[in-house]
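[audit] Reproducing an earlier prediction to check determinism. Same input, same settings, fresh worker. If the tokens differ from the archived copy the diff job will pick it up downstream; this log only records the rerun itself.
[audit] input (524 residues):
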Amino acid sequence: MIQVKNLHLMHKKDLRTILDDFSFALNPGDKAVVIGEEGNGKSTLLKWLVNPALVEDYVEAEGERITGGVRIGYLPQELPEEEKGRTIYEFFCEKEEFFLQDPGELGRLAKELRLPADFYYGEQKMYTLSGGEKVKAQMARILLGKPDAFLLDEPSNDIDIDTLEWMERFISEARQPVLYISHDETLIERTANVVIHLEQIRRKTVSRHTVARMSYREYLSHRENVMDNQMQMALDERRQERIRREKLNRIMQRVEHEQNVISRQDPHGGRLLKKKMKAVKSMEKRFDKAAGQMTERPEEEEAILLRFSPDIRLPAGKTVLDFHLDALTAGKGTECAPSRVLARNIHLLVRGPEKVCMIGRNGVGKTTLLKRIAAELLPRQDIKAAYMPQNYEELLDLDKTPVDYLSKSGHKGEITKIRTWLGSMKYTADEMEHPIRELSGGQKAKIFLLKMNLSGANVLILDEPTRNFSPLSNPVIRQVLRDFGGAIISISHDRKYIGEVCETIYQLTEDGLRRVTQDDFSVK
């Protein structure tokens, strides 16, 4: 249905190969997930498939793209800039199909996505919607166009758990093929029947890709078995090679010794020793040839290296936060834009190294609440708080390089330390000098984690901390946050993060925060 032949993608700025000789066919029934570390070209691949013009500013592309007139429903990772200032109604009016739908169909789709029935006609600007509401709006518009194939870049980002479960059902049950990128391991495990793994090995100097027509769990197990078997074969062959070399050296030393001591009066014995040495040299050549054909040790992309200082500790009885709010509101509160009450009677108490997560439906005000909490905690002198927003651009200076952004003094020793940390997070030397605006979402998230680490913060305020990390990096991130000795106050819809990291879970409702257990929702 959609076919790629011999695709080669190269980054124009640092001349790094992103994909090399990549071929793939998206067939009916395929639910194909693209995985790989941050900056490995996942979004670039999807953009090129939708329209090569989307990547021509920063990528050199060679290869054949065959779509055969297929209508593609494309969900970009971020809402395009030109659409952020439009009202919801204007956003839907862009598509002719919107006017061809009967009210019943529009209502059914809104209900599925847990949106108000009149959502399509809203005068609210798109940029003011929550992250999850933006994803839902885009999915609704895509579905109204009835595409033949879906290309979805991070459809699981920012949506609430109910909508995540809808997304799982949608991908699993869609008659059309789906090619998607996601960092939600639970969604991937439940939906994917094809895995496309993009890797950058040897310090991002070599591109490698794998296409496996199997489930994600099967792929991980198969990959681990292949790697283990290859490593065992490589070690066995090298052990046998060592034994052969030791035996050969002993024979060669003995023959050389006999040649040195043989009497000149024994020419016959000398000729025999020459023949013997010739045979030994011939054997050495055979061993050299065999050594060149030995099984290579398996190469895989290294995981990121990150840990917070073990010296970070908070006393169990320390009151980190005792937050009260009569009403949580959104909007400017003017005559033209009156404020809306999102929730009432909010109370949140956090003590010691507690790890708290807030969940709730999209638009209920979780991010707004977390910003209020951050505003209260960041100025405090008795704790050291650090904040990671959902929208990284709120705090990042996009024109700076990662090194410049993280540096305080600019001293040589500090720069060296920062470069070392960035290297441990799998930045190349070139990427360290790129403006932050050119980096992927995951690479921007790494900058926040490094800044928090370097700051010595003992309270982390995190809005969707795992949303932009690959399913291969996320286990590392969860382990790092689980081992963190301070407090964490977070928002997340990542069911593995909630299950493995968070000790206390609150659901934000219109009536405030309600404590829940992991059994109250789908964390498996």
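[audit] rerun output stored. Observation attached for the diff report: The first strand starts at residue 2 and ends at 11.
[audit] end
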